[in-house]
Prior knowledge:
Elements: H1 2-20, E1 36-41, E2 47-51, H2 64-73, E3 82-84, H3 87-93, E4 108-110, H4 111-119, H5 124-135, H6 138-151, H7 174-184, H8 188-195, E5 198-201, E6 210-213, E7 230-238, E8 242-251, E9 254-263, H9 271-286, E10 287-293, E11 300-305, E12 312-317, E13 321-326, E14 334-339, E15 345-346, E16 354-362, E17 365-374, H10 382-394, H11 397-428
Parallel strand pairs: 11-15
Antiparallel strand pairs: 1-2, 1-9, 3-4, 5-6, 7-8, 8-9, 10-13, 11-12, 12-17, 14-16, 16-17
Helix pairs in contact: 2-5, 3-5, 4-5, 5-6
Amino acid sequence: MPKKIFSIFLTICLIIMPILGVSAYEPTGVELTAKSAMLVSLDTGEVLYEKAPEERVYPASITKIMVVTLMLESPKFDQNAKIAMTDEAQKLILGTGSVCSNLKVGEEISQLDLLYYVIMSSCGDCAYLAALTYGDTVENFVNMMNEKARELGLTGTHYQNPVGLHDSENYTTAKDTYILASYALKNEIFKTACESTRYTVPATNMHAARKLSTTNFLQDSSTNYYYMYAKGVKTGFTTEAGRCLVSTASYNGYNYMCILFGCLDDKAKRHEFIESKELYRWAFNNFSFKHIANTDNPVCEIPVKLSLKTDFVSLFVEKSFISVLPTDADDSTITIKPNYENKSVKAPIKRGQVLGTADIIYANNVIGTVNLVSHEDIERNFFLMVFDGLKNFLTSKYMKVVYIVIALLIILFIWRVWKLNRGRKTKSGRKIKYIPYEKSSKGKH
């Protein structure tokens, strides 16, 4: 369990960290009706375009990404095991307007088939069946969804049902959806399912074999919205949410994820597919990889203390830094700005030791941050260490208190001596009145 938690934490860090240090560009020749949007490089994590990425939106069936994630992570999941449609699942979806599978009560399919029904065909009755199967109750499964959202750091997300039916408390953000979808795509079963165009459900105990089709027209060559470079991930729609789409596209070694929420619902055309395609084309035509920093060239140097071998150590980037930038970007506008916690470092220093960071800046915007490391071992000199330790001890806060106490004692001693001397002078300068001795008169009686 600790390893799993650490893995989730590491995944979140790798996803979130690039977002915090990137700038977005304004796409040319693209008209968006989406209320919230993001276009992110899956190669570097850089955001090429964003519009209200942290604004709350209704997710509609994008919710089912979380449902399938929990299915795959459940100890109950066995892709070959059979599962039967229940009367409860069908009653829950009745009258909601959600897409249904037409599975009959008691009809058995494999758990893998159920997964395809949920993620590919977006069937609401199957989403409820998954909730009942892996959570025992819908309420408990929704709690599991919200708990997973907290684990992944989805601070702008809350689930109220597993289908994506409209509810004021069923919301998410484009940024959270990027984190969730990136996490989900690490599972090969999820990735294969959401990127499939067709899937055959084998014959069941009540019906002949069926064929399922993807709801993502970008990856369906039989539609007018087909885009040969697009794959997955999930569509969504309710009147309140508008048209929503999470997709990915890959071309010539470049990989992007596009997230659109709240696109215009137009009977004449599907804006979510058109706008996603336009954003992908803009990215593929206008951006390219830039090798900004490599591990072979030093970025800077920093003074070294306690060593007789050298006075400075050269710092190199820990890993080569590659950024997706405009193809016509001027290299002279790209700079590397080192950041140090201290103005110098003390030996010993190990090869690969992180000694600082550096911001990668393009056009006055920080597009990434890298660690700076040493490429050599530097030993510490024993006598310099002792001298430095003594120096630090003598200048420590403890010794400063001692110095103050000693100073106060000296001042008190001086004051006491001064007072004592003053008292002696006063005593020695005092005048004594002399009374002469009068002899008795002779003969007097």
